[in-house]
Structure prediction request, 223 residues.
Amino acid sequence: NAGVMQNPRHLVRRRGQEARLRCSPMKGHSHVYWYRQLPEEGLKFMVYLQKENIIDESGMPKERFSAEFPKEGPSILRIQQVVRGDSAAYFCASSPGYGPEQYFGPGTRLTVT
Amino acid sequence: RKEVEQDPGPFNVPEGATVAFNCTYSNSASQSFFWYRQDCRKEPKLLMSVYSSGNEDGRFTAQLNRASQYISLLIRDSKLSDSATYLCVVVAGTGNQFYFGTGTSLTVIP
Prediction:
């Protein structure tokens, strides 16, 4: 059973470009969470999605950030017009929904130059 | 006030030592509690759940004190492979969001 998969593992973008981060949950998991870890800081919750629904986006910045989890395919975290402060590790986690445990993917390290 | 507070350390201990980490949380309605381990530049991995009755897994013991809103992790007979950052996690909210502490860094020295 493959774990949570994220790609790309490393992403470099220039200021003003768009970044798209993908997450495929573990098989059988229908709940996806996105977290951001800034250098020297803890992980911060961004958004919680189920298939075709955003359940809680209280941790998402109000502008430039969006997330989706379509019926088919991976969950996507999209950052428009990236700025240097967006440089961080973005982790996706999934859960089956019947317990609180979450399982994390290897993360995408975004660098904005 | 932060949701979860941890002493960042670092803790540098010799092999075989016993080390304890502590964590406090602010939301009394928090539902579940975990310790995760994160190696450098890797993803967090579940170490163990934390219950009021205590939870032991080999050399690791976790404890929850709901009255004091306090969580602990005890590692006995430390191994070199225990070197990592230990993350206290509190689950709250309708969506089971994880609230992470900033992590406690442990280095076990030969």
